[in-house]
Write a structure and sequence with these properties.
Layout (H helix, E strand, L loop, with lengths): L1 E8 L4 E8 L4 E5 L6 H9 L6 E4 L2 E2 L10 E4 L11 H11 L9 H8 L14 H14 L4 E5 L7 H18 L2 E5 L3 H7 L2 E6 L2 E7 H11 L6 E11 L4 E6 L5 E4 L1 H4 L4 E4 L4 E4 L11 E12 L2 E8 L2 E7 L1 H7 L6 E6 L4
Parallel strand pairs: 3-8, 3-9, 6-7, 7-8
Antiparallel strand pairs: 1-2, 1-4, 4-5, 9-10, 11-12, 11-14, 12-13, 15-19, 16-17, 16-19, 17-18
Length: 342
């Protein structure tokens, strides 16, 4: 639990935040540049003077950063240039005290697949490699609350999703809570269970990540993304595709490795989803899911449909003509075809 009552006068606006995060594992902070995201993180960490901050029902107003049980990873976090990657990790492991987790150096190296980098001089690392090493060092500080400011912006999307999946696994295995700032709503939606939206120093929305993201997409007149949790059943070597089973469902999909190896979630654009009132028969696509129409809303002359697939949500778009022709009603059983997975 984190409870905040923050006020700080900034150059162009005042940071004025009252926020209570009762239950979360990974919370995302989203907002435009200059909205107060980084300052919020610094307040939680104790780097912006005395502010009203409660962590796990304990007031930490007057505690310095090192006594708050918090690790803050800032955007430009330096590595020791005279040490190789292994030396940087070993230094952190040796010199961080009051550790609250049993994350060892070897566990972190294995989780982030850093073995090929260990003997490298840090000055030879790419931007993405450097961010992974910095994140490893942050984990080795051993705190139960880790705050990350744009931690993976230099990683390409496949590696970013893979690292975010690892972060989620570490959170579950070692009971670590993360707060992540990012300009990418796609990134936050992928890993966060809770989302906080900031603008001009104030919280304008917070709650379950899917709910807040949907509102952000609607306000910006953007088509929302859909995320589907899955389990891998098997890999078909003959056709080079995975057979997936949806989480808490018996429905299945086929997907290429490029769609699966980014983690245990599929990220689907609205354009990848089409819907029909009857099971498609004359189609080469075997990825059809039975669903029900949860809601429909006319946004900017396009119908936005939210479909329920055994407890998970899909979003797709329909033109007014197609909507009127089919006369869909909330609660109808529909069939969603997923394109471009195999």
């Amino acid at each position: 639990m984190i409870k905040l009552a923050l006020y700080k006068s900034l150059n162009s606006f005042d940071l004025d935040i009252n926020l209570h995060l009762e239950s979360f594992t990974i919370a995302g902070i989203f907002g435009p540049s200059g909205s107060g995201k980084s300052t919020l993180l610094r307040c939680i960490s104790g780097l912006e003077g005395e502010q009203s901050v409660y962590i796990n029902d304990k007031s930490v107003h007057h505690l310095p950063t090192e006594q708050r049980g918090v690790t803050l990873q800032v955007q430009s976090c330096p590595l020791f240039p005279h040490l190789d990657v292994a030396g940087n990790l070993a230094f952190t492991q040796k010199h961080c005290f009051n550790r609250q987790t049993d994350l060892t150096e070897q566990k972190v190296i294995d989780a982030l697949e850093l073995h090929p980098l260990l003997k490298r001089n840090v000055q030879s690392l790419s931007g993405g490699e450097r961010q992974r090493v910095v994140f490893a060092r942050t984990l080795l500080a051993g705190q139960k609350l880790i705050i990350l400011d744009e931690p993976f912006s230099a990683l390409d999307w496949p590696l970013r999703f893979k690292t975010l999946s690892t972060l989620s696994e570490l959170a579950a295995t070692f009971t670590i809570k993360f707060i992540i700032v990012s300009h990418s709503l796609k990134e936050l939606l992928f890993c966060c269970d809770t989302l906080v939206q900031l603008n001009n120093g104030k919280v304008i929305n917070h709650g379950p990540s899917a709910q807040v993201a949907k509102a952000i997409y609607a306000n910006n007149k953007q088509a929302p993304l859909s995320l589907i949790n899955f389990q891998i059943i098997t890999f078909d070597e003959k056709y080079g595709v995975y057979l997936l089973k949806l989480h808490k469902s018996e429905q299945q999909l086929f997907a290429l490795p490029s769609a699966v190896e980014q983690g245990n979630k599929l990220i689907l654009e609205c354009e990848q989803i089409s819907v029909s009132a009857e099971m498609p028969l004359n189609t080469n696509n075997s990825n059809v899911l039975i669903c029900s129409l949860h809601s429909a809303e006319l946004i900017d002359k396009t119908w936005q449909l939210t479909l329920d697939v055994d407890g998970q949500s899909l979003c797709c778009l329909l033109s007014p003509r197609v909507w009127d022709q089919n006369n869909y009603k909330v609660g109808n059983t529909l069939y969603a075809t997923i394109h471009n997975l195999e």
